[in-house]
Amino acid sequence: MNTPLTPTPSLAPARLRTDAVRLGYAETTVIHDVSISIPDGSFTVIVGANGCGKSTLLRALARVEKPRNGAILLDGSSIATSSTKEVARTIGLLPQSSTAPEGIRVAELVARGRYAHQSMLRRWSDDDERAVTSALASAGMSELSERPLDALSGGQRQRAWIAMALAREAPILLLDEPTTYLDIAHQVSVLELIARQNRQGTTVAAVLHDLNQAARYGTHMIALKDGRVAAVGPPAEVITPSMVREVFDLETVIVPDPVAGTPMVVAVGGAEAT
Description:
Helix content is 30%, strand content 27%. With 274 residues, it is α/β, with parallel strands linked by helices. It has a single domain (16-273), classed as Rossmann fold (3-Layer(aba) Sandwich), CATH 3.40.50. The longest helix is centred in the last third of the chain and has 16 residues, at 184-199.
């Protein structure tokens, strides 16, 4: 019988957090009264088995999902009371699946990241131009800015979407499985881009599937099991054989990553085999 893990609370300050939030669809509850924080300046990774509520929780942090109970708090106030543009100026979201008009150029896509800064009285400005140029450069997409989005490779398209999120210049960036469907080289490239943005001051929260990538790039980890927090804290403390057994039903050995020194998960076999 598995022993439930005891979450370790984070004492780091956080502009964005949840207070006993409950989320679900129809008659199904997906997230059960979860209270977490995204520490300021952190690269927070949310991990867990398929269907545990990771993406639902991330969307709620961006006010895409409405809690059934509890609250999402931004700067101490319920995010539900903030205007859409106020939230968009503070929180950038890259969802798991993104769609764009056929034939749209990369520069046009990235420029859409500035919508939160527009109004009837404020049109395109020098600040908008600077933000788009900077975002394209940060994502390594400057030379491809005039290319149609649908003419790019999967990795290039993902970088274009990230550039759009960066153009918003929001201090908090949320990413839902940003490396899905990418080969290993493009996965590393995207994660390096996100980590560089984090080192430059952006608070990042990302849903990741690969525990070894989560451990290498993350500075703070939240592990979910069946819609509840199983463990929280630095990856070096959270990633243990008991956590992986409890959350993923997998027997593992944890060894140091030979390059980064972070925890590296080596699978031994299913927990039912022991």
